[in-house]
TrEMBL record:
Its EC number is 2.1.1.6. CDD domains: AdoMet_MTases. This is catechol O-methyltransferase. It catalyses: a catechol + S-adenosyl-L-methionine = a guaiacol + S-adenosyl-L-homocysteine + H(+). One of its GO terms (biological process) is methylation.
Amino acid sequence: MDTLTQSTRPQRLLGAVQKNATRGQPHSVLKAIDQFCTHTEWAMNVGDEKGCILDSVVSEVNPATVLELGTYCGYSTVRIASLLPPHAKLITLEFNPDFAAIARQVIAWAGLEDKVQLVEGASGDWIPKMKEQFGITTFDFVFLDHWKDRYLPDTKLMEECGLLRKGTVLLADNVICPGTPDYLEYIRNSPRYKSQYFKSHLEYTKVEDGLEKSVFQG
């Protein structure tokens, strides 16, 4: 919270989008956020460097059904949604209602609200309801970018709920910084997954971080 302006960082990020991005142009929204985070204030988006890895995986999978765990301000939601084929469904979960309110405006500014269903609440509560509430059979692609201690339990919960099919791709952010050691140990040693690590850097810094891509084997 900035005591002078009485605004939060997400609100200032939204202001940068509204000032510098063109409505209906996802690329300009991403550029405005990247510039804000590089030159004004750091924020926990996936960022431009890791965002390129995310883009390449989404393009490779070409998913019809996507689950994003952790919306924050909607940056990665915009990256993913802008690459989806027509009629694809992206469900993004955000626990913090203040973040969700900002994300809705960022997604709408990018012109992608028709492709995105933003759901507020805890992942552990919503994952078991996915099939019933949203008519999802399985997800083609899952992006994990929420609380790091929820990566492993939520992955196991998705397995138990039958939301993963043979070939479903999981992509997990921040597996090095701040790190998800229990998730990595599980996903790399389980015969149910084939995993690959993409070395990169923590968003907008030189600190090592990376993404773990894991393909569910059934």
